[in-house]
Model the fold of this input.
Amino acid sequence: MANNKEARILIYNDTHNSSVYGLWHPNFIDKTGLKRSDMNPVMKTIWGYWKDDFVPRVKKWKPTHIWLPGDLIDGPNKFHQGKYLVTPDLNDQAENFLMCARMLPEAEIEGVAGSDYHNSSFFDAHQYIIEELGGNFNVFDFVVEILGHVFHVSHGRSFPLVQVEQNLAREVTFNAISSYQKKYPEVEVIIIGHWHIWREIRGPFGPKKDWRVIVSPCWQGQDEYMKMRSPLRMVPDVGATFLTVTEEKVIVDRVLYPTPVVVNKPRKLL
Done:
């Protein structure tokens, strides 16, 4: 921690490496010796955000901690039967993500698994990734205290993307009940991924602190699953979350990039 009085926490998630709509390092050579460098316009845009802005931004900011809330690779992805993968090989997916992650500065790393269908045996691939980065793998979630502030981090679960703030506020209520019953620690900041959007809600947490629920954005464009479910509603936010933690407060910031979508302007018929 900087001067033992400040922590800078970078949170990025849902990179979905190997999705043809996600993050992919174009210099990757797979285990057969094939260089998988071809990228469609969405992949090129995501990679450009990562290489040209995000990596230099993070290097300048110098995080003390990096938290990875899951779905770092796209895995076998049962929803599209592998039709929209650069490679179905989970080892190659993991190695490609590691190439991207190692472009960032070293920091203390914590991570969790993502959705089951993006993994093998539920969490093996994510465990490999986190441990290869020298981090601490937590399977489902973790609770940590930094400078007197308690954080809960998990991948998250699905909700309808309507009345989002109401769904997030329920998590605060659930924690208030479970902590009152001495079943769970009292949490000041709840952090999830999974939704592919950026949201933050907050309220008073005593005289000097605020409770917060943060949904950290993703590194994937609008994929076929979103377009089949609701193309006008399920438009992701691309970027990452930055937390500055002091003894007095938690400061939340984020970087967001224009969302790459397959259809970005109408096709004129007349």
Notes: The mean pLDDT is 88.
